[in-house]
Amino acid sequence: QVQLVESGGGLVQAGGSLRLSCAASGSIFRSVIMGWYRQAPGKQRELVATITSRDSTNYADSVKGRFTISRDNTKLMVYLQMNSLKPEDTAVYYCNWKTEGAASTWYKYWGQGTQVTVSS
Predict the structure, then answer these.
(1) Cα–Cα distance for residue pair 91/114, rounded to 1 Å
(2) Conformation bin of residue 29: beta by default, left when phi > 0, alpha when psi is -120 to 50
(3) Residue 58 CA from chain centroid, whole number
(4) Whole-angstrom Cα distance, residue 91 to residue 117?
(5) pLDDT of 49-96, one tens digit each?
(6) How do beta strands 10-13 and 114-119 pair?
(7) Residues pairing with 24 in the sheet
């Protein structure tokens, strides 16, 4: 099974920055889409950003221009650089993956996530 381990979260002031990391062990990594999700208390998990094997990216409107997703296939890592953080970014952040192609779904086993708290 693939193991996903997120790290890099913390407490920051509004306007600050954090860089999240995700280590994916047991995965091929190439030819997969990687993504970052977040879940705030009382809310459903939402997709924040994705990156394909060819480094094509997509972002939720709420984070566009502030967050940057990247990947390192050699290190089997995916990152989320978060700048200009807002209190509404407060959530537990998770990484996940899915294969590229039709009928692909996100991996069914989630990691522990990493807590991001943004104070005003």
Answers:
(1) 8
(2) left
(3) 12
(4) 7
(5) 999 989 999 999 999 999 999 998 777 799 999 999 999 999 999 999
(6) parallel
(7) 4
DSSP 15-49: T--EEEEEEEES---TTEEEEEEEE-TTS--EEEE
Q: Which two tokens stand for residue 12?
A: 């920051």
Angle at 35 between CA 31 and CA 38, to 5 degrees: 165
Three-state DSSP state, 60: coil
Q: Is 77 exposed, middle or buried (0-12, 13-18, 19+ CB in 10 A)?
A: middle
Walk across the sheet containing 57-59 and list its strands. 10-13, 114-119, 91-99, 32-39, 46-51, 57-59
- Main-chain dihedrals φ then ψ at residue 21, nearest 5 degrees: -125, 150
Q: What is the mean pLDDT of the chain?
A: 93
Cα 56 from chain centroid? 15
